[in-house]
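Technical annex, item 7. During the second reporting period the consortium partners agreed on a shared format for inverse folding records so that results from different sites could be compared directly. Each record opens with the tokenized structure and is followed by the designed sequence. A conforming record, contributed by the partner at site C, is shown below for reference.
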């Protein structure tokens, strides 16, 4: 084979090989997790709900939280009405929540709302841990039990399963539900088996006051949740995974809202990769920390859509090169092997997502979804936090 052709194919295969090897390992380790012993049910929690103009849906979320199976005198539901111009605060109070109102048009966004609420919770001293739930979410009744059981076993940060409330709203939400099955359940199970951090995923996470004092919450970027999870890892604290409990939220179903949300995430991820990957790798080497290494790998490995695109390009390039030199067939087989890993990873995510046979039909939209993601990557992105419009769900 022509040396230049071989080098080009090898260069194209390198990121795909690295990503697929990592995904194969996580998929292989995604068997069920043991559930910890029942807690003493003595811990106190502040459940924090950051809310910006959520008057239409906040009642549902507060009702779900008040229905949690935990002694009522041992948890509070605190809605942070952040820069609201509607009746969010009044509606939340009528629903039974305590409300903190915050007005600061300069320091805007979820990160600032959480920092304000965490400070208030620590100062008040009622609770020993805080829980973060999105304003459009519903939770399982065992949420606080799952957190408390792990805290009593020594955990200081825990992430529940973050799922989708409206999986059947559109083909897009069906695909995202399957993707979350792979990203949240498959990978988090594997990391829990390995004693690594599943990270903070924005909704359904818990952290103790003790840890907040050690690692103050000072993260306000477009991906403030992931950034905080990385800071915890650098401090030597892993985020445990409580897969038996869940906090499910609505996902944007129409293209306009999904585009705004995805662009925000994409921009935030790019900024985060640039800012934290090298420091994490240095920490991993200097401290011989597998925890920091895995957090770095989680950033380095591209989203599944882009890994798939990489594998497809490798396969097409190898097929074209084979017409000129049969030796290039090796790279075509290599691309097929990578594709097989992706298929197994996605199918495992589908299996754990609970979507059933009907969910498989949504996979027919994968090519269009990948092209849409690629177009968003090249399109103009928002430079600041913008609230995603809520959609009515049946």
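Designed sequence (site C submission):
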């Amino acid at each position: 084979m022509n040396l230049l052709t071989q080098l080009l194919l090898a260069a194209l295969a390198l990121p795909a090989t690295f990503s697929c090897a990592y995904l194969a390992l996580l998929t292989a380790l995604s068997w069920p997790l043991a559930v910890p012993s029942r807690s003493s049910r003595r811990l106190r929690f502040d459940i924090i709900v950051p809310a910006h103009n959520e008057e239409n849906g906040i009642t549902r979320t507060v009702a779900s939280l008040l229905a949690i199976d935990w002694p009522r005198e041992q948890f509070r539901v605190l809605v942070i009405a952040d820069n609201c111009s509607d009746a969010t605060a009044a509606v939340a109070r009528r629903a039974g929540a305590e409300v903190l109102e915050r007005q600061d048009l300069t320091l805007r966004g979820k990160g600032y709302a959480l920092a304000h609420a965490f400070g208030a919770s620590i100062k008040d001293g009622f609770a020993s841990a805080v829980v973060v739930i999105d304003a459009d979410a519903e939770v399982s009744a065992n949420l606080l039990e799952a957190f408390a059981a792990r805290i009593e076993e020594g955990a200081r940060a825990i992430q529940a399963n973050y799922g989708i409330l409206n999986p059947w709203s559109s083909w897009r939400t069906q695909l995202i539900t399957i993707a979350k099955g792979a990203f949240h359940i498959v990978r988090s199970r594997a990391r829990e088996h390995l004693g690594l951090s599943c990270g903070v995923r924005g909704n359904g996470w818990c952290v103790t006051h003790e840890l907040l004092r050690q690692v103050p919450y000072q993260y306000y970027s477009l991906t403030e949740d992931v950034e905080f999870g990385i800071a915890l890892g650098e401090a030597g604290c892993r985020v445990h995974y409580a897969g038996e409990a869940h906090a499910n939220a609505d996902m944007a179903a129409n293209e306009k809202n999904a585009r705004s949300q995805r662009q925000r995430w994409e921009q935030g991820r790019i900024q985060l990769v640039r800012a934290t990957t090298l420091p994490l790798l240095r920490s991993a080497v200097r401290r011989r920390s597998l925890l920091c290494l895995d957090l770095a790998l989680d950033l380095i490995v591209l989203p599944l859509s882009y890994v798939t695109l990489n594998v497809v390009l490798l396969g097409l390039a190898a097929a074209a090169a084979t017409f000129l030199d049969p030796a290039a067939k090796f790279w075509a087989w290599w691309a097929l092997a990578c594709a097989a890993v992706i298929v197994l990873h996605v199918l495992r995510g589908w299996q754990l997502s609970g979507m059933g046979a009907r969910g498989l039909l949504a996979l027919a939209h994968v090519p269009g979804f990948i092209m849409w993601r690629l177009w968003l990557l090249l399109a103009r992105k928002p430079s600041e936090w913008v609230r995603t419009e809520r959609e009515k769900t049946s």
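The mean pLDDT is 92. The chain has two domains: 3-29+303-378, 45-275. All partners now use this format for quarterly exchanges.
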